[in-house]
Amino acid sequence: MIQLHDLHFAPFISERRIRTRVLALAQTLTAQLADKKPLFMPILNGAFVFAADLMRHFEGACEVRFVRLQSYVGEKSSGEVRFADIGLSKEMIAGRHLVVVEDIVDSGQTLHFFLDYLRQLEPGSLTTVALLRKPSAVKFDISLDFVGFDIADKFVVGYGLDYDGLGRNLRGIFMKND
Length: 178
Ligand code: IMP
Ligand code: MG
Description:
Blueprint: E1 2-4, E2 7-13, H1 15-33, E3 39-44, H2 48-56, E4 63-64, E5 67-73, E6 76-83, H3 90-93, E7 97-105, H4 109-119, E8 125-133, E9 146-150, E10 156-157, E11 173-176
Parallel strand pairs: 3-4, 3-5, 3-7, 7-8, 8-9
Antiparallel strand pairs: 1-2, 2-11, 5-6, 10-11
Helix pairs in contact: 1-2
């Protein structure tokens, strides 16, 4: 059991299970995109750990471009997606094979918004991968190509995910105690 701020969290997905799953996802991406020099687009902050592991197991030339989106405040979705300074242009994206990397899809709002935006920039292909998905909470119609783990509709931290700034450095994923 660990404590972050006022909440307690219990071990949920081990470092070892995450590694096995991330390796499998990277192999799938390699099979699909090895010769396409994909541009990985991790959504900050949460996806930075997952994206780093995913990319390092991708076998082929690739590039990375981080983007910052935010819809969460504390442990609740704020209901709006703010995006600060995305700074992407058509010249940068058109024809490129994008791999959008998300830590967790909750309502799906963040990804829905971002994918709409990216499509206008006419990428060559668009692949979406999320480490976690809360199926009961997916309210927005989004196409997710690959998912690491489907989980219950509970608040989780670790492996990049935070609770008000804390917990991102945990190597496993922990679930909030009710
Ligand atoms: P959505 O837009 O509702 O799908 O929310 C997705 C974003 O909210 C993710 O990129 C996370 O940053 C954050 N988020 C959603 N669920 C959790 C959670 O259980 N723990 C920590 N962050 C979360
Ligand atoms: Mg996030």
